[in-house]
Design a protein that fits this description.
This protein has a single domain, classed as P-loop containing nucleotide triphosphate hydrolases (Rossmann fold). It has 213 residues and is of the alpha/beta class. The relative contact order is 0.20. Helix content is 47%, strand content 13%.
Length: 213
């Protein structure tokens, strides 16, 4: 089994890139969107994005509870992945052990607590990461792209530009940090401020090269 991860702030094109990479890889590729890859994850994703859609009285989720929910989503996702054929290539559209820590820290949580919470949800059989690609665009570009897309703002975006800029900064420096929730064989920052086809081809060429090693 091979594992590719696409990470980065909203508005970098992760979902579109994941879909095109799946086509390039072929029938053995599966996209795991986090949260949301499993039936449980789909409910958690809806809760994460808009709690009031689950219950009108649920106006928000406190950061600690949010981390616990993300840990539950990751655990469920990994147990599902372990049932897939060994020749499968998993393309993660976000990876909770990375994104949950970044968003949790931006929310003011103790990074050590957040990392321990996520680590406790990682099953021993969790495969390592063959390729981590962090899609990067200038903060102003990510803001413009979010404003242009349909569907309005989710509760995460409603926390304001200051919060989102902290998240953006954490992604920009992740590869130089020491935090590695699972072994990462290869990591690279990708300039996503270019045509989406160029982004896909850059990742694809890099992935093919590393897959040979």
């Amino acid at each position: 089994m091979k594992v590719m991860i696409l990470e980065g702030v909203d508005g970098t094109g992760k979902t579109t890139v994941a879909e095109q990479l799946k086509q390039l890889i072929g029938s053995t590729a599966v996209i795991a969107k986090m949260p949301g890859a499993t039936p449980l994850g789909q409910h958690l994703r809806q809760l994460h994005k808009n709690p009031q859609s689950i219950n009108p009285k649920l106006t928000d989720i406190d950061p600690h509870t949010e981390q616990i929910l993300m840990a539950a989503d990751f655990s469920a996702c990994i147990h599902w992945i372990l049932t897939l054929p060994k020749e499968t290539t998993i393309i993660f559209d976000r990876f909770n052990p990375i994104s949950a820590v970044i968003y949790g820290t931006a929310n003011g949580l103790d990074p050590c607590w957040t990392q321990q919470m996520i680590s406790s949800s990682i099953p021993e059989q969790t495969p390592g990461i063959d390729g981590l690609y962090i899609l990067s665009v200038p903060f102003e570009v990510s803001m413009k792209r979010r404003q242009q897309r349909n569907g309005g703002h989710c509760r995460i975006e409603a926390r304001g530009n200051s919060f989102l800029e902290k998240v953006w900064g954490s992604y920009e420096t992740f590869l130089s940090s020491n935090y590695r929730p699972v072994p990462i064989r290869h990591g690279r920052m990708i300039n996503a401020d270019q045509p989406i086809n160029d982004v896909v081809q850059q990742i694809w060429a890099d992935w093919c090269e590393w897959s040979k090693q």
